[in-house]
Design brief:
Elements: E1 4-15, E2 18-29, E3 33-37, H1 44-51, E4 59-64, E5 67-68, H2 73-76, E6 80-83, H3 95-105, H4 110-123, H5 139-151, E7 157-161, H6 169-184, E8 188-193, H7 196-199, E9 204-209, E10 212-217, H8 219-226, E11 230-235, H9 239-247, E12 252-258, E13 261-266, H10 272-279, E14 283-285, H11 290-301
Parallel strand pairs: 3-8, 3-9, 6-7, 7-8
Antiparallel strand pairs: 1-2, 1-4, 4-5, 9-10, 11-13, 11-14, 12-13
């Protein structure tokens, strides 16, 4: 059985009268890529900051890398890597100079620094840009450099808070390949994201809504357990205008807009022909995506059945 690197029980964090995280319990296995999903304000960043020892829980308890989250946060900090949404790179320094600075900050032995810097440049495909000032780099290069700075000390546990916000889809794919490479080498990665294609690459996911843990499981398991019924895709002109009409049909469990199409969840496959006759279109049976899981969770949160 894999080692538990994170184990928290009923952890909450309050800011005055506002509860940002509400009685969340999680366990994360060593070597996993563990994804935290949810809309802005759902508590993802607050959980990460508590697990890093930056914020103290208001209540609850747990351990990170075997150390008590409440009593021993200072023992956790040296053993982890943390890349926030606003990770601080020094814009008037080059890529190499930033890596050298963080190698010193994180206590990488002097004799190992040159090798680690070379390793981080290769990991981020930055060899050709190593002498470029950060101020001249595009966002994708900066993000990969920031990741190299965060892991140059080879932490056992890495926290990434919305690491690919604001970068192109190509850069996001490059970045996530690096995450997968780190996990394959034994690093446990906890990543918050709102991109469903990234979530699909995680070993396990936790969906957060309004500070609470709404669901947890593997991507495949969540899709199977939460999207129950027959899911159809229907191409319609102006699909947003048709949602309310479709939701009124007695055999429709849910309906949501996905680009130029509607995803319609029926009570059973026998209703497909009836739906097609009503809407006067052809429908295609599809497999649920994590976006469909999110819709199902939001519906449950609203009190739907």
């Amino acid at each position: 059985m894999s080692e538990l690197v994170v184990a928290i029980r009923e952890v909450s964090r309050r800011f005055g009268t506002f509860t940002a995280v509400d009685q969340v319990s999680l366990e994360i296995q060593s070597g996993q890529i563990f994804g935290l999903l949810g809309p802005n304000g759902s508590g993802k960043s607050t959980i990460i900051r508590m697990l890093c020892g930056i914020l103290a829980p208001s209540s609850g308890n747990g351990t990170v890398l075997g150390f008590d989250l409440v009593r021993e946060p200072e023992k956790i900090k040296p053993l982890i890597g943390y890349m926030s949404q606003k990770f601080s790179l020094y814009e008037d320094l080059t890529a190499v100079e930033n890596l050298a600075f963080y190698a010193r900050v994180y206590g990488v032995p002097r004799r190992e620094r040159a090798g680690r810097i070379k390793e981080m440049l290769a990991m981020g495909w930055l060899q050709d840009h190593q002498q470029m000032l950060v101020a001249e780099m595009n966002t994708g290069w900066r993000q990969r450099l920031a990741l190299g700075c965060a892991v140059i000390a080879r932490p056992r546990l890495l926290f990434l808070d919305e690491p690919t916000s604001g970068v192109s889809p190509t850069s996001r794919r490059h970045f996530f390949r690096i995450i997968q490479q780190l996990a394959a080498q034994g690093t446990t990665v906890v990543v918050s994201t709102h991109f469903m294609d990234e979530a699909e690459r995680c070993h396990e996911l936790a969906f957060m809504m309004e500070g609470r843990l709404a669901a947890r499981g593997t991507p495949a398991g969540l899709k199977q357990s939460l999207v129950q019924g027959t899911l159809l895709e229907v191409q319609l002109p102006d699909p947003l205008r048709r949602v309310e009409e479709v939701e009124q049909l007695p055999y429709v469990r849910d309906c949501s807009v996905h680009g130029t199409a509607l995803h319609i969840l029926l009570t059973g496959p026998e209703r497909q022909l009836e739906l097609e006759r009503t809407l006067q279109v052809s429908a295609t049976v599809i497999s649920p995506s994590l976006a469909d899981v999110f819709v199902a969770l939001a519906r449950r949160q609203r009190g739907g059945n």
